[in-house]
Design a protein that fits this description.
The chain folds into 2 domains: 100 residues, Leucine Dehydrogenase, chain A, domain 1 (Rossmann fold, 3-Layer(aba) Sandwich), CATH 3.40.50.10860; 130 residues, NAD(P)-binding Rossmann-like Domain (Rossmann fold), CATH 3.40.50. Helices cover 40% and strands 16% of the residues. The chain has 10 helices and 11 strands. Helix 1 runs parallel beside helix 10, helix 6 packs across helix 7 and helix 6 crosses helix 10. Bound molecules: the ligand Nc1nc2c(c(=O)[nH]1)N[C@@H](CN(C=O)c1ccc(C(=O)N[C@@H](CCC(=O)O)C(=O)O)cc1)CN2. Ligand LMY7XDAE binds next to helix 2, strand 4, helix 6 and helix 10.
Length: 296
């Protein structure tokens, strides 16, 4: 079997088009222009690219974009003061602080300082708790929501009863991914570095979501034939010359001989992350303005 390639770039472009249409409607009929503030501390090269893309795609969707670039030696107090200003700014409906942060700043303290109504990353404990409670009002983290949208497409919107294995237990991907799949009535297993006999667990899974940050860890012979494989890993390995080569957490060439469908890296889950961020921002803006959203 050769797996179908799940085109995340195309799916993200389609989602961004829907968002742009909704934003145009909100601006026209409700005089509401959703605004997203993105904060970057330091000069991590990958983060700079992501933040630039977020700003560009926000503007392309017709929304207001505010980008704040802070020095690498910014103190936690300075960052918290900026977050407080953004919380109070009525033109800002969504706030995202790009991760990772430099070591002098406590990530969790910053996440907790963001107004949960503007927490378009869905990382605030109030949103994480709401997601775990199955509250439809929860703002859910963008990467797992992107994975879920790709999966729904593969299963014609019916994931009920599928055995899903989530490899990785981070607050950003693994845990919320498991919650979202549970809400779709999947049977969910969460695996991590201490899990015993991961290949055996994998062979039972109809859906595998790999989010461990270990290049090529999931091998082709771990997979159940026909499984749908979502690769969240973005690992930079030395490439030709001084260019890095991006690889996922799944050994792609092997896996595509066994899986039914698989996301590539790049061009799979990654592009969905920013599209879902725009979506969360529109949903957050509508709630703050007490206006109905057609995206929610
Ligand atoms: N506050 C947050 N920080 C981080 C998040 C997040 O969701 N919120 N996620 C990642 C980075 N990220 C978005 O911020 C992100 C990662 C990857 C992509 C993407 O489009 N990837 C491309 C490859 C691009 C490349 O060359 O690196 C792909 O996979 O095709 C978008 C956004 C960590 N920080």
């Amino acid at each position: 079997m050769t797996a179908a390639i799940i085109d995340g770039k195309a799916a993200a472009a389609a989602l961004r088009e829907q968002i742009a249409t909704e934003v145009a409607r909100l601006r026209e009929t409700d005089d509401l222009q959703p605004g997203l503030a993105v904060v970057l501390v330091g000069e991590d090269p990958a983060s700079q690219v992501y933040v630039r893309n977020k700003g560009r795609q926000t503007v392309e969707a017709g929304m207001l974009s505010h980008t704040h670039r802070l020095r690498d030696d910014t103190s936690e107090t300075e960052l918290l003061a900026l977050v407080a200003d953004l919380n109070a700014d009525p033109t800002v409906h969504g706030i995202l602080v790009q991760l990772p942060l430099p070591p002098q700043i406590d990530e969790q303290r910053v996440i907790c300082a963001i107004d949960p109504a503007k927490d378009v990353d869905g990382f605030h404990p109030l949103n994480a708790g709401a997601l775990a409670n199955g509250d439809p009002g929860a703002l859910a983290p963008c990467t797992p929501v992107g994975c879920l949208l790709l999966l729904r497409e593969q299963f014609d919107n019916d994931l009920a009863g599928q055995h899903a294995l989530v490899i990785g237990r981070s607050n950003i991907v693994g845990k919320p991914m498991a919650q979202l799949l549970l809400q779709e009535s999947c049977t969910v297993t969460i695996a991590h570095s201490r899990t015993r006999d991961l290949p055996a667990l994998c062979r039972h899974a109809d859906i595998v979501v790999a989010a461990v940050g270990r290049p090529g860890m999931v091998r082709g012979d771990w997979l159940k034939p026909g499984a749908v494989v979502i690769d969240v890993g973005i690992n930079r390995l030395p490439g030709e010359g001084d260019k890095a080569r991006l690889v996922g957490d799944v050994a792609f060439a092997e896996a595509r001989e066994v899986a039914g469908a698989i996301t590539p890296v790049p061009g799979g889950v990654g592009p969905m992350t920013i599209a879902c961020l725009l979506r969360n921002t529109v949903v957050a803006a509508c709630r703050q303005a007490a206006v109905a959203s057609r995206l929610a």
